[in-house]
Amino acid sequence: MKLAVWIIAVALIAASTQAHAQDRVGQGQPSAGGQALGDTLSLLYVVSGVRDNGAAAFAGTATTIHCTNASTVTESLQIIFRQDNGTIAGNSTFIAASAHTLTASTHDTNAYTEFALNTGIINSGVAFIFATTQFMFCTAMTIDASAAVPTGVSLHMVRFSPVAGTSE
Q1: Is residue 34, in this structure, part of any structural domain at all?
Q2: Does the pLDDT of residue 161 top 60, yes or no?
Q3: Is the residue at 81 inside a domain?
Q4: The pTM is what?
Q5: 49 lies in which domain range?
Q6: Domains identified in the chain, total number
Q7: Domain membership flag for residue 2
């Protein structure tokens, strides 16, 4: 009798797990066959108000961008910083493993361990963020690069290609 109860319990658990996995695909979750490293980069965000005062590393004002890969696979991420006149000040492509957060700044800051693009002076600039997945989520801020605790201003980001059913 106990064996029959255990067999039924295992069968119910297996059935519910399969149903849940089917629901996730219907909710737009990335799959192993989805976009991945090497696929085409698509525009995700435009960030206005980028600023760097041209100071040395760990000094002055810098703009910092954090992006987290919520995809189930490794993805590519590209950040392009432009001057107010459109001239490219910095352009780098990064590899972001699944569930990892990448931080990039216009120059080194004390608040974060980041990739520094060393853009030089940017006044009223813009950043374009591209990725090989729509499951990349980012924030941006202009901060005091000398401060160990982030002190600054959050920048407004315009999202392109949003994940269905979400709002940022």
Answers
A1: no
A2: yes
A3: yes
A4: 0.77
A5: 42-159
A6: 1
A7: no
- DSSP secondary structure string for all residues of the chain: -HHHHHHHHHHHHHHHHHHHHHHHHHTT---TTSS-TTS--EEEEEEEEEEE--PPTTSSEEEEEEEEE-SSS-EEEEEEEE-TTS-EEEEEEEEE-TT-EEEEESS--SS---EE-----EEEEEEEEEES-S-EEEEEEEEETT-SS--EEEPPEEESSPPTT---
Does residue 167 fall inside a structural domain? no
**Residue 149's CATH number:** 2.60.290.11
Range with the poorest average pLDDT among 7-21, 29-43, 71-85, 86-100: 7-21
Tell how strand 122-131 and strand 136-144 pair up: unpaired
Ramachandran angles phi, psi of 109, nearest 5°: -125, 160
Instruction: Measure Cα distances from 114 to 41, 67, 104, 125 in Å.
Output: 22, 11, 5, 20
pLDDT at residue number 2: 55
**pLDDT recorded at residue 4:** 52
